[in-house]
Design a protein that fits this description.
Order of helices and strands: HHHHEEHEEHEEHEEHEE
Number of domains: 3
Structural class: alpha+beta
CATH class of the largest domain: Alpha Beta
Number of strands: 10
CATH topology of the largest domain: Alpha-Beta Plaits
Largest sheet: 4 strands, antiparallel
Strand content: 15-25%
Helix content: 40-55%
Radius of gyration: 18 Å
Shape: globular
Number of helices: 8
CATH architecture of the largest domain: 2-Layer Sandwich
Strand order of the largest sheet: 3-1-2-9
């Protein structure tokens, strides 16, 4: 479990261009809007909203953008009704892939997702074909710095209910059960910790390594193009990129 999130991956996402950041913020805005419509605009009474705000902050989304998205969603009566859909399939070399989408047109989204699986050497499967290879977990990453005492952080995380704590080269990784994620995240946030990442995601149980340069190139392109789709919120896979 520990160390499944690669530092290079985190840095690559942090260093995206302004255009790519704008697209990420748009997707986060959509997620905020859906959660506001489901549970209301007040973070105090909507735990899912508190969680997605933390996710947005970890992605460096400005506070004013977050507040604007919440107010906009709260004021929209006849707004677009987004549907949450999960696609599962295999990438090159049998890599397991899960795609989470929010869409107002499931036919369009399914066609787009299938197109990229086909184009880059994979195939879209049926529901459940790969999800059994993943566990849903809360994942919190905190960048190492001289102000953080590792033992204190570990004890605090475990006291708040974390399942696992590990130390990687550049960051600390905290794993929680999905139902304990909010409690752990809020506890650490109240202690003043800032997060590189804080969200509930699908964590692979085992990893698949690719050695064929062509398969590696295709897998990289598959992830890149799926993540670039407007309707796609998250892409999870068990490709060991190291």
């Amino acid at each position: 479990m520990a160390g499944h999130s690669k530092w290079a991956n985190i840095k690559r996402k942090k260093e995206k261009t302004d255009a790519q950041k704008a697209k990420i913020f748009t997707k986060l805005g959509r997620e905020i809007a859906v959660i506001v419509r489901q549970g209301g605009p007040e973070p105090e009474s909507n735990s899912k909203l508190r969680d997605v705000i933390a996710k947005a902050k970890a992605a460096n989304m400005p506070n004013e953008n977050i507040i604007r998205c919440i107010k906009k969603a709260a004021g929209e009566v006849n707004s677009t009704d987004y549907e949450e859909i999960v696609y599962e399939g295999y990438g090159p070399g049998g890599v397991a892939v899960i795609v989470e989408a929010m869409t107002d047109n499931r036919n369009r989204t399914a066609a787009d997702v299938r197109h990229y699986f086909d184009k880059f050497g994979g195939n879209l499967g049926t529901t459940g074909c790969v999800s059994f290879m993943f566990d849903q977990k809360g994942v919190i990453l905190i960048e190492k710095n001289s102000k953080i005492n590792e033992d204190d952080l570990m004890m605090e995380a475990l006291e708040y209910g974390a399942e696992d704590f590990s130390t990687e080269e550049e960051y600390y990784e905290i794993i929680t059960a999905p139902q304990d994620f909010s409690k752990v995240r809020e506890g650490l946030e109240n202690k003043g910790y800032e997060f590189l990442k804080a969200e509930v995601e699908m964590v692979p149980q085992t990893m698949t390594k690719l050695t064929d340069p062509k398969q590696i190139e295709l897998m990289d392109k598959l992830i890149e193009h799926l993540e670039d789709l407007d309707d796609v919120q998250n892409v999870y896979h068990n490709w060991d990129e190291e």
